[in-house]
Amino acid sequence: MSETADDPGPLPVWARDDAFPPAPEGWGWVDHKGKRQNCASREELLEAIRKDGDARLLLAWMPGHPRMMLPEEVAGAEEAVLESRRRLAAGDLLEAHDRLRWFGILTGGLALWMLYQGWALAPRQADAGERLLFAMRALLHSMSVGVALLMFLIFAFIPWYQAVKRTREFGRWTPRDIAAAVPALRFDTWLELQKAPATRLLLLIIGAVGIAQMMPGNSIAAAGMVKPAYHGGEWWRLFTAPLLHGNLVHFLMNAAALLYLGKRMEVFARWPHVPLVFLFAACIGGEASARFLAAPSVGASGGLMGWLGFLLVFEWLHRRLVPRAATRRLLAGALLTALIGVVGFRFIDNAAHAGGLLAGMLYAVIVFPKSSSPQRPVSTVTDRIAGGLAFAAVAAAAWFAIVRVTGG
After folding, report:
1. CB 152 within 8 A of CB 144
2. Which residues, in sequence order, are CB contacts of 269 under 8 Å at separation 6+?
3. pLDDT at 353
4. How far is residue 29 CA from its own chain's centroid?
5. Is 2 helix (H, G, I), strand (E, B) or coil?
6. Which of 27, 117, 123, 125 is most buried, most CB within 10 Å of its CB?
7. What pLDDT score was predicted for residue 136?
């Protein structure tokens, strides 16, 4: 792996003066869709920043600066930024409270219903204590309650906790805190503006398999990781199972993780390693699942966990390339995934997750030497050939999975 820098300069690409697009004349700002809004004066720009309660304002520009900049970098905009961020955090917290309440009511109601069902199904000769114990066992073994609890954790409790944390953080912020947050904000904003065609191609391939799964039939039995079939010689399931998903929610959650982690990998480690790490980690995760779990399994999460493990090690080996705050968020994501795995252990393939994570970490250690350079590694011809072959293997697996699922 070559460590030759493709970008000259002593700073990582997101921290340099030319990280953002050239600025037009006058004052103005850009939203997340790339639409530009002109302002007549500096005061009008500050007012736009102050009223930005839904984080539409991505970049700003002003006379005397050749490049666009973050709202946090506009001179004298500190109070406007604080007001905007506090308003945004307050709105998020209110929405999170509502979601927490409704998910709590639904989850609690389902738990009470399952307790009642368990009580009603208990042996008639049992006393009250035995009937209650029977009902509790029915509740603990209920798949519906387990799924509801997992959904409560992912879509209600965690967003609520994050909203509370942001509200408290912004409540204590000063202009000095804004300046300290600029490196991580520049990193996130610059990353959002980058293109990631390899990542989107992989999502397109997985999406094509997902469309095929909408056809009548048992797609998991046809091409998923069915352990007896795999142990019986159907080795190809190791490649097709990561491209299938159990349901739409499963697919959408993995798609969101794929777009973020894949772009981060593609931008910093270069595109050949996107399919290479995914394929390697998915196969190792699938093998771990086959060895430790008897239930059938599907999903790209083994490969995605490989990306996560890769990024954790890669960014540790290239400490000047990514701000520490951004890497800490990756670590928090890994810990959060572990927590979700503990809560949903009955229907989450933790073996595949762990196997994929370790595979991605191992790949980063072997392929990328430690570097003190702030510049991104450059892919070699060998990297590009290997990456192309990996993409071909994924596409072939997708075609075979579609044929199996549709009965073609």
Report:
1. no
2. 310, 314, 368, 376, 377
3. 97
4. 28
5. strand
6. 27
7. 81
- Please, which residues bridge with residue 39 across strands? 27
Residues shown for the chain: 408
Q: Which tokens is 161 given?
A: 């906790």
Q: Can you spell out the DSSP letters for 10-54?
A: SS-GGGSTTSSPBP-SSEEEEETT--EEEESSHHHHHHHHHT-TT
Task: Quickly count: other Cβ atoms within 10 Å of residue 247's Cβ.
Answer: 9
pTM of the model: 0.90
What are 357's two structure tokens? 């994570």
What whole-number distance in Å separates Cα of residue 356 and Cα of residue 311? 13
Tokens 């928090």 identify what position? 332
- DSSP letters for 208-262: HHHHHTTSSS-HHHHHSB-HHHHHTT-TTHHHHGGG--SSHHHHHHHHHHHHHHH
Residues 6+ apart with CB under 8 A from 363: 273, 276, 277, 280, 281, 306, 310
d(CA 212, CA 406) in angstroms, rounded, equals 6
How high is the pLDDT of residue 368? 96
User: What pLDDT shows up at residue 133?
Assistant: 84
Residues of the chain with pLDDT under 70: 1-9, 53-55, 139-144, 408
